[in-house]
Amino acid sequence: MIVRQTKNIMNITGNAQLEVVCYGPGLDLLVNGKTTVQKEIEELQSKFNVKFVACEFTMKRRGIDKSQLITQVLTVPAAVLEISSREQEGWSYVKAGY
Questions:
Q1: Residue 78, by phi and psi: left (phi above 0), alpha (psi -120 to 50) or beta?
Q2: Which residues of 36-55 are buried (b: 16+ CB within 10 A; e: fewer)?
Q3: What residues contact residue 39 under an 8 Å CB cut-off, 6+ apart?
Q4: Could you write out the DSSP letters of every residue in 61-73?
Q5: What is the pLDDT of residues 51-97, one digit of tens each?
Q6: Ordered structural domains, the chain, with CATH
Q7: Residue 19: which of 40, 44, 47 has the closest Cα?
């Protein structure tokens, strides 16, 4: 769902600045062998410069190393802190997923 919503936003605006922060079960979106949308993520990264970010706390808890993430994924120490920091910078937070 988040990839579809991100594509829709970028197709409408063409230049929105988006960062998709994945944590908890959502981290699977960015893990090699678990994600089903790697091609779409790579297209969003290259075509629109959408940033995909993994939570290091979730990675540690689940035993996932950075080498297991798909191409060009960034990591942050804590997803909640990243989201909070972005909101303080004026970004909007839109929660997506199930």
A1: beta
A2: eebeebeebbeebebebbbb
A3: none
A4: HHT--GGGBPTT-
A5: 999 999 999 999 999 999 999 999 999 999 999 999 999 999 988 86
A6: 2-88 (3.40.1260.10)
A7: 44
